[in-house]
Write a structure and sequence with these properties.
With 523 residues, this protein is of the alpha/beta class. 42% of the residues lie in helices and 11% in strands. It has helices at residues 27-38, 74-79, 85-89, 101-117, 119-122, 125-137, 139-154, 165-168, 172-181, 183-209, 227-231, 269-274, 278-290, 326-336, 352-360, 402-409, 412-422, 429-439, 449-452, 482-494, 506-520, and strands at residues 6-10, 43-45, 213-219, 246-250, 260-265, 293-297, 304-309, 319-322, 342-344, 365-368, 390-393, 444-448. Strands 9-6-3-2-1-12-11-10 form an eight-stranded parallel beta sheet. Strands 5-4-7-8 form a four-stranded antiparallel beta sheet, with no helix packed on it.
Amino acid sequence: MKDVRRSGILLHPTSLPGRYGIGTFNQDAYSWVECLAQTHQTLWQVLPLGPTGYGDSPYQSFSSFAGNPYLISLENLVELGLLEQSALDVAPDFPRDRVDYGTIYTWKLPLLRRVADQFERRAHAELKAEFAQFCVDNKDWLDDFALFMALKDAHGGAPWNQWEMPLRSRKKRALESARTQHAAAIHGHMVNQWLFYRQWLHLKGFANARGILIVGDIPIFVAMDSCDAWTNPDEFYLDQEFQPTVVAGVPPDYFSATGQLWGNPLYRWDVMKKNRYAWWLRRIGAALRLYDLVRIDHFRGFAGYWEVPAGEATAIKGRWMPGPGADFFVVVQEELGNNLPIIAEDLGEITPDVIALRNQFNLPGMKILQFAFSTDASDKFLPHNYTRNFVVYSGTHDNDTTWGWYRHTATEKERDFFRRYFRTDGRDAAWTMIEAAFRSVAATAIVPLQDVLNLGGEARMNLPGRATGNWTWRYLPEQLTGHVIDRLAEATQLFGRDPSLYEGKDEEAGGQSGQDEKGAGAG
């Protein structure tokens, strides 16, 4: 039902519990989904699920189409007969509360290579047929991705634009030779992708059957060192040596006084327009296979983006450039229909053209409660200023946890405003924020699990601008106590975010919704 109020939890799968160093699609993931259902949540938001490299950021992936092999459940491989239990019995003594990416890289990836090497011998006929069909169905991206990763392996992890020129420029003879020379490695990466998709889509189906939708994340830009850039160089601003001439970033903002220099290659939107954004349509289609809804990170880049000359040390010396605007979304609508399953991440320096673009296509924007207390009652992030078509968060993966924010990150002015606004002493700041989000008029409320668990800054997922130490937080199963579960379930029902409350009340809810929208001015 269109106007039903919903809520959900932001938790990246790497943060799930588990014995083998990182959250995976194992039984703990299914227990997590059951917990979401038990607390009446209908949304599970994740970060990008693509393969990660140096820095471990899910926003710097080797592919917009591939999945991260780190997330593959090893226990499931044992169940399928593709891996012996003895290999897991000698696993390193991983920390329970954080991801040790270095050890994952040196221990888990060799195990996955062993699975691929022994696949023909250990897999039964049904699995072999399933793998073969997967390779056929995903040929349009899988062949290039597997070759790309095999070549990265062969070049010691070097970026593709440092390879020898025949491979860098994708000369036919060089690619054919590489496919022969690296056939075993290519096969290994294909097996990994099949296992990832097989496990994730089964978990997604399990969630969907329990009324839970998956909210995914599409970073607007791709990594320079990605199969996307390697296979589509004409659609990016690259020179004859395939080095970027300009790169992406954002100007100075809430997160950084010098802006953020992301370094991603920038799109040649004029070229993309000529082929009706074919690569983007494939990208969004692939995302909607993995997710039910997608948040487009840095939505404002479609209206205008910050262009920084390559080689700059910071993002200060950039300039605003026009994006594709409405033309892009008209084409997307022609492909997907008028009701686009997209959330617009409209944070940062937002100008009227960004708001107009978002509203033209009726896309919900985002409200972040932690941003609400630095000015006055007119602040657009304060709940009394919301309209329905928004997704409200206490914070995101880029924010401190709410308890960490209240105790350390917020200024005294912000803390004072927070206490006066909510008529609280601040001792339960995280749950004050959660209840404010759930109580608000915004149609959707999503909060990070760290806030539900009332954790401090040690549980922060990412600090923008910090090169290392991010993306490592994991929750412990014993932290999800009965008290926490009961409190979340009660808040969900108390503030009308359990869709079962609306069953059989379409006419009544529709009439009330009409009054709300008229009174609040929502489009």
